[in-house]
Amino acid sequence: MGMSVTISAATEQDAEQIFRLQYLCFQSEAALYGNYRIDPLVQTLDSVREEVAADCVFVARLGDEVVGSVRGRVAEDGAAAIGKLCVHPRLQGHGIGARLLRAAESALTEERGAKRFRLHTGHRSESNLRLYRRVGYETVGTAQGADGVPMIVLEKPAGAYATTA
């Protein structure tokens, strides 16, 4: 019998595994855009540690291994920015990303007062767009990433998070 994946709040001890997982997971995004300077690939370990300490960060674990993560923070306007959702390539397509989103959305609403959720994904990232739309996000605009990648901005109201599990 295999182990099941659990979702929990990240601790500072998870920062290094999150950092390594993020680097692995975002290689395919970088290849899609021919740009290996995207933020998840150039972020420092210290910066990941700072996010784990200050933001709402969740991890998916398979035993002791971190196999997924997501981060969120609430801005002054009540919109929660959700980012750097990633799941280990060998475990993608099994609902772990949706479970991570659900955990982050719940905590951001209940603990930090989020009124709506906002996220960005690259315009060519079809699997990401499918996931986000399936769990209730709608396109509200476009943006240019600091790395030059054209991004699609998606949002959904808080309270709609219950449909993401």
Task: Explain how this protein is built.
There is one protein chain. With 165 residues, this protein is of the alpha+beta class. It is built from 6 helices and 7 strands, in the order E-H-H-H-H-E-E-E-H-E-H-E-E. Strands 1-2-3-4-5-7-6 form a 7-stranded mixed sheet, sandwiched between helices. Helix 1 crosses helix 4. The longest helix has 15 residues. The protein is globular and about 40 Å long. The C terminus is likely disordered.
Please outline what is shown here.
The protein is an alpha+beta fold and 165 residues long. It is 34% helix and 32% strand.
Quantity of strands, as a count: 7
* Poorly predicted sequence stretches spanning 5 or more consecutive residues: 161-165
> Given the C-alpha coordinates, what overall shape results?
globular
Instruction: Report the mean per-residue pLDDT as an integer.
Output: 92
Number of helices: 6
Rounded to the nearest angstrom, the radius of gyration is 15 Å
Order of helices and strands: EHHHHEEEHEHEE
In the sheet with the most strands, the strands line up as 1-2-3-4-5-7-6
Task: Sum up the structure in keywords.
165 residues; alpha+beta; seven-stranded mixed β-sheet; 6 helices; 32% strand; globular; disordered C terminus
Secondary-structure topology with pairs:
Layout (H helix, E strand, L loop, with lengths): L4 E5 L5 H11 L1 H7 L5 H4 L2 H10 L1 E7 L2 E10 L4 E9 L8 H15 L5 E7 L3 H9 L3 E7 L5 E8 L8
Parallel strand pairs: 4-5
Antiparallel strand pairs: 1-2, 2-3, 3-4, 5-7, 6-7
